Amino acid sequence: MVQSLLNAGLLFASGVLAANGVGGVKNGLARTPQMGWDNWNAFGCDVSEELLISTANRMVDYGLRDAGYQYVVLDDCWSAGRSENGTLVANSTRFPNGMAHVADSIHNLGMKFGMYATAGSLTCGRYEGSLGYEEVDAQTFAGWGVDYLKYDNCYNEGQEGTPLITYNRYKRMSDALNATGRPILYSMCNWGTDYPWKWAQTVANSWRMSGDITDNFNRVDPRCPCSGDEGYDCALPGFHCSAMNILNKMAPYPDKGQPGAWNDLDMLEVGNGGMTDTEYVTHFTMWAAVKSAMIMGNDIRAMDAKTLSILANPAVLAISQDKTGSSAVRRWRYYLPNNDNSSNATAAQGSGTIAEIQMWSGSLEGGDAFVGLLNLGDEAIMINASLADIFVDAGGSHSEEAQSSWDVYDLWANRMPDSAANIIIEANSTSAANLTGVYWNNTEKSYADGVAEEAPVLLGKHVGTVEAGGSISSMVESHGVYAVRLRMRAGPSKRKRDEL
Ligand SMILES: *[C@@H]1O[C@H](CO)[C@@H](O)[C@H](O)[C@H]1NC(C)=O
Ligand SMILES: *[C@@H]1O[C@H](CO)[C@@H](O)[C@H](O)[C@H]1NC(C)=O
Ligand SMILES: *[C@@H]1O[C@H](CO)[C@@H](O)[C@H](O)[C@H]1NC(C)=O
Ligand SMILES: *[C@@H]1O[C@H](CO)[C@@H](O)[C@H](O)[C@H]1NC(C)=O
Ligand SMILES: *[C@@H]1O[C@H](CO)[C@@H](O)[C@H](O)[C@H]1NC(C)=O
Ligand SMILES: *[C@@H]1O[C@H](CO)[C@@H](O)[C@H](O)[C@H]1NC(C)=O
Ligand SMILES: *[C@@H]1O[C@H](CO)[C@@H](O)[C@H](O)[C@H]1NC(C)=O
Ligand SMILES: *[C@@H]1O[C@H](CO)[C@@H](O)[C@H](O)[C@H]1NC(C)=O
Ligand SMILES: *[C@@H]1O[C@H](CO)[C@@H](O)[C@H](O)[C@H]1NC(C)=O
């Protein structure tokens, strides 16, 4: 079976590992990329019981819990230091009823509770760190009912510089979490330092692979050095990294994620106001396509309709939560003169390069494929992608895939209308809105089961077909993405699969 899949070009190493139950830290969690909310991007240190519980309630009311966002994660600045016996203590002004109460309240809503600590002597906000206190802190978190730990990298006492040093430091908390007996999703936040994509799969459920994100699409900032073009060997991961800076840094590592262990491109900025709607759509789509953790970072309680309709897009979340766990791969990136409206990249190479276009594609469950055409330039442009390039891993133009015809489903054409989103937000409830064809309830039925049943809302809107040997073409607006699911219509592979 493996051989025939290989011949069909559908196989990513991660799919095989998952099928065999190998790979990933053995806590059974994050079989698909984790989804949730973290307060940092919108609130920084301004944390409280009230913020977490009211946000969790809105996540339920707005249908976000049932869209799959199950973790509510408290970031830095919750601590008041250590008690005399050495255990961490929560700030009683911010958390007057204690942390176990927060966990209970979130659990009562059918959600899970995450917390933050640091593999250093201090957290980034300069509260007590957990280095040297791994066991006692893991026990404290488990005792409070914590289900998720984001584990940062500040003030690490210089314990970095080789993969082994960093591995050992992060493994201590991994072992300590395991020893509690409570399944706790372990989210490493070490900013790509010492190449976590090489070694973190067996100790953690996810690892940050870049410096911190900022709410900007593609602005260059000296505090976030390295664009990803150099290959990733960035001594200073930095912060204030734009969404596209991080996406480009991810491009060499699509094969490193797998069920149970994911690349984390950092929390989403959707809804925080620093990007246009088009840019947020691109940011969200690509985080889903490369199987990043999907952690919302906006103020859920002050969300507008367009933010809700991005975060709840069922056809894109179905890509994120696809069973194979295969990341999309950047197949090509071309630079075009900004006023050149053709996609003849050969002609454009080197001729006053200003606008950039990229094509990403990847395998999905059942032989489907994701394709994303990105326009990073300042003007709308027609982008063309051939089946030969989309399926280059399968053998390019000679592959069965390129010699088959495909149905094309637009992942954004069924976006929830503003009118429906506004009804939800005004009523604090999904029940008054007509969500037929624009929303998926993952609590009722998983994205994977929905895709297996060919639920139209998860496939996207059927917008056409590509003939064997053909191309996908679309006008793509500036900073936009044309994102589609391809499903095979007819071809040698389709016949072979139907016979199985
Ligand atoms: C701890 O690790 C063992 C061995 O890898 C695994 O079988 C077990 O499920 C883990 N327990 C928890 C709570 O993560
Ligand atoms: C999703 O389905 C569950 C289980 O049927 C139900 O309790 C919940 O209210 C539904 N959520 C939404 C937003 O429709
Ligand atoms: C606890 O929180 C309050 C209110 O935000 C703040 O004034 C105080 O400094 C915090 N205490 C510690 C020890 O951080
Ligand atoms: C340590 O002290 C804290 C705060 O006083 C208390 O809640 C906790 O139960 C103590 N733990 C142990 C192991 O004594
Ligand atoms: C590019 O081509 C499209 C479709 O042919 C056209 O609508 C658009 O105006 C052109 N844009 C520029 C900048 O030439
Ligand atoms: C693209 O431009 C190159 C260089 O000018 C030319 O050789 C090639 O034929 C063009 N291809 C298409 C499809 O127009
Ligand atoms: C929705 O929730 C907000 C915040 O709790 C509240 O101010 C508002 O009155 C609620 N609206 C409705 C219709 O219940
Ligand atoms: C809900 O929306 C769907 C899809 O647009 C439509 O077919 C259906 O008639 C609507 N139902 C109601 C009750 O308005
Ligand atoms: C774009 O794709 C179409 C097929 O859809 C093809 O005929 C055309 O030659 C392509 N254009 C370029 C410039 O590659």
From TrEMBL:
It is found in: Secreted. InterPro entries: Aldolase_TIM, GH, Glyco_hydro_27, Glyco_hydro_27/36_CS, Glyco_hydro_b, Glyco_hydro_melibiase, Melibiase_C. Residues 1-18 form the signal peptide. It catalyses: Hydrolysis of terminal, non-reducing alpha-D-galactose residues in alpha-D-galactosides, including galactose oligosaccharides, galactomannans and galactolipids. Transmembrane segments: none annotated. Its EC number is 3.2.1.22. It holds the Pfam family Melibiase_C. GO terms for biological process: melibiose catabolic process. GO terms for cellular component: extracellular region. Gene3D superfamilies: Aldolase class I, Golgi alpha-mannosidase II. Hydrolyzes a variety of simple alpha-D-galactoside as well as more complex molecules such as oligosaccharides and polysaccharides. This is Alpha-galactosidase.
